[in-house]
Structure prediction request, 370 residues.
Amino acid sequence: MADYELEDDMIPVFLINGFLEAGKTQFLQFTMAQDYFQTDGKTLLIICEEGDTEYDQALLKRTGTTAVYIEDQTQLTPDYLTELELLNNPERVLIEWNGMWNQDGLVLPKDWSIYQQVTILDGSTLNLYIANMKPLLGAMLRNSELVICNRCDGVSDEMLTAYRRTIRAMCQNGQLILEDKEGEIQQEMLEEDLPYDVHADCIRIEPEDFGIWYFDCMDVPERYEGKLVEFTTTQSRERNVVQDIQFVDYYTDFMEEGADVVIVDTPGLNGMADGHRELTLEEVKQANYCIYLFGIRGMADTDKAIIRQLSHYQNKFIFVLNFIDQIKSSEGEDVREILDEIFMEGIYMRGRMDRGWPADRERSGGVSDA
Prediction:
């Protein structure tokens, strides 16, 4: 999804584009049937072209979806779309775009905003569209978050690589998936796909990109021969990381507290290097509180197991729900429901769990004093 949250009074628009018979209707029907895409409100489906595949009327009824067919792009004015909004009162809008219409000409009402754009392409005919309709293709790809190129059966690796380079040039920030009848096609990563500059004097690998670099280095070692690469790791040939580097001190002002507050960032029970588990348990035993971070998907089985182990040595916890700015409220996700799940899973712990809500909910959510 998009990396921003819409305001409450904005209607999210999911724009699915591609040329005729590329598979847009199949993609939309599959998505509409998934549990994660369900909503309590109404859905307005605007269909800008009719292919061989028709929409399942039972699916539309079950998902509270009203379909409106558009015959000409001139109909798609902000005034007409506003009329559709007043008539149908949708919680969200899906648009199946006509690939022969110039998407740059689409103007939405002020309270509508494109939340996600997906492009569906047919790999068996894509070379013809690249050769003859590149401006239309570029307008569709420019702001797409996801590009699915299906029906690539029989397309050579050389042609698939050419497709990837062309699509990447037009859609620099989107994810590209190539598919045949067996599913996703795995190809060697191109330089254009990498999240870092392989031609820099020093290739700096961020921690979140280490896995990408590692596998690419194994697959295409010649790409990095003779180049300086900088990254952070717990592995070292020269040092025993756990024994030689016991801690790193960092001092900063903390919430205008007069007294000293010491926060210890441990490697965790599942740390990569030998000794990390023992070091973590020792710090937990000595601490006044244990701060435990969750991702936005809540408490996983691994979290339950770790907290059970920690609770043998510590009975005061501060739980922090991290990255809540990535929670998709427009899809029905709610930070309070995730915290409720964490509390329900955590009732086995000693003591009482009280909820704590930070003043700045855009940054983190947490609970205190278990």
Q: What stands out?
A: DSSP finds eleven helices and 14 strands in the chain. The mean pLDDT is 82. The longest strand covers residues 112-122. The first helix runs from residue 24 to 32.
